[in-house]
Specification:
Length: about 280
């Protein structure tokens, strides 16, 4: 992302170090950055780096997202403008060097599996990160192991920048594991129904085995059978993963309702509510 001559005069009044910083950040496509990035780019001390960023903020070239995290204000927005970059890019920065992917309710949105937006952004990450609000966005992190980083694809923010997000099949399984992070088990069922024509069933089965979570197997098998989305061989493959333990269909609701022996499941959601997904 090289800057043309019409853009560069906007910050020529800055010192050479500050001008170098802004130029390098753009050319490295790091529109969200940390003080450590400033030190790496300019070679100055941490104290001098803080002064450079402060000068850029005074000129409206940089916005503070949170202590220690900044983003560049696009030149076309002019001076003294508060600007927050894509929240998905901020999520990537918050993950730092750890492996991550956008997941749960956020992945449902990006994969077009919901009809209503989620209020928080969910990120699965291999390190523990506390919930936080940055740039007006609420970020929630779900810790996973390195072995659970699979079923991930790229979501392009623009022609040059992308973030990692779970694919449709992995998104469904994460929703079945943690329905609360999607808006409830019915919202997960809606996503499954919306994507029924696009599901890669062999991939879904492979992911289910790799994730190896009994509650997910039970909930997935029941929904696939109820909505008639899988053949007998697929359903029997899932049944082969079951243990004798029973799980609640909706972990957010009390353990109340009939037991479905075929799926080792306590159906604590009215079947009519699930059927309404197909007709509503």
């Amino acid at each position: 992302m090289r800057l043309d001559s019409s853009e560069k005069p906007h910050y020529k009044t800055l010192g050479p170090r500050s001008a170098q910083l802004i130029t390098e950040l753009y050319e490295r496509r790091k529109t969200t950055f940390t003080p450590a990035d400033v030190v790496t780019i300019t070679g100055v001390s941490p104290g001098a780096a803080r002064k450079l960023v402060a000068a850029a903020r005074r000129r409206g070239l940089v916005t503070l997202l949170k202590p220690g995290l900044y983003n560049l204000v696009p030149f076309e927005l002019g001076r003294a403008t508060e600007h927050v970059d894509s929240p998905y890019l901020i999520a990537r920065e918050l993950a730092g060097d750890a492996e991550y992917f956008l997941s749960h309710g956020t992945a449902f949105e990006l994969n077009r599996m919901v009809t209503q937006p989620n209020l928080a952004l969910y990120v699965s990450c291999t390190r523990r990160i506390r919930p936080q609000t940055v740039g007006g966005y609420d970020f929630r992190f779900v810790q996973v192991t390195p072995e659970q980083i699979f079923g991930v694809t790229k979501h392009w923010i623009d022609k040059e920048r992308f973030v990692s997000v779970s694919d449709v099949e992995r998104t469904l399984l994460d929703g079945l594991r943690h329905p609360a992070f999607v808006g409830g088990i019915t919202e997960v069922a809606k996503g499954l129904w919306m994507k029924r024509a696009d599901l890669n069933m062999p991939r879904l089965l492979e992911y289910t085995r790799r994730l190896d979570v009994g509650a997910v197997v039970r909930r997935l098998g029941y929904l696939l059978e109820r909505y008639e989305l899988a053949d007998a061989a697929t359903l029997e493959s899932l049944r082969g993963l079951l243990t004798a333990t029973y799980q609640r269909f909706d972990p957010l609701l009390p353990a109340d309702g009939p037991f479905v022996a075929r799926w080792r499941l306590q159906l604590n959601v009215a079947p009519e509510e699930l059927d309404a997904v197909r007709f509503g």
